[in-house]
């Protein structure tokens, strides 16, 4: 068993690198065709991870939508959708959020050890709560997921989680849809925040594919020597 799953980061952003508008109004970045692309990607993964802020802000279901893809997973002896994973530092999670109520797939919540009891009581049987702590929280999360049999992990946000995985050198590939407009709001969430990144002018990420999908540019980057061409 590898010490962490093969990790794919997936995001849609504006031309100036924002994931949202920085307001209470949800910013629509993807198109129906792009959502179909992401659904196909979800169907290939064992688990989907998002930060707790994304659970609170976007209320995502994180399910494979296409009936044919769900049926294919079941035929392979898999759940119809990947397991859902979130990481919280505060334990502020609503047990009635779609993350916990949509679908029947396994749900995992990682939080500081001293919050495990409160989180477990709040969420009840809607999630398994696991304690992780320290500066290498996501390293421990990925190691625990690998120990649970997660071989391929899809990370769908938000910016803080993307930043920690990228600066930690914990991502194997990045799939990025770029919408043809600007946000221009410094309070909005960027794809990646400040930090020391492994990729720089002397160590460039490798562009594997670039495609046009509706009016989006869809880019795929290899970020590690574990990159899988499929």
From TrEMBL:
Record-level Gene Ontology MF annotations: 5-amino-6-(5-phosphoribosylamino)uracil reductase activity
Keyword annotations from UniProtKB, A to Z: NADP, Oxidoreductase
GO BP terms in the entry: riboflavin biosynthetic process
Bacterial bifunctional deaminase-reductase C-terminal domain: residues covered: 5-198
Pathway the protein acts in: Cofactor biosynthesis; riboflavin biosynthesis
InterPro entries: DHFR-like_dom_sf, RibDG_C, Riboflavin_Biosynth_HTPR
Metal-binding in keyword set: no
Highest rank taxon of the organism: Bacteria
Protein name in the entry: Bifunctional deaminase-reductase domain protein
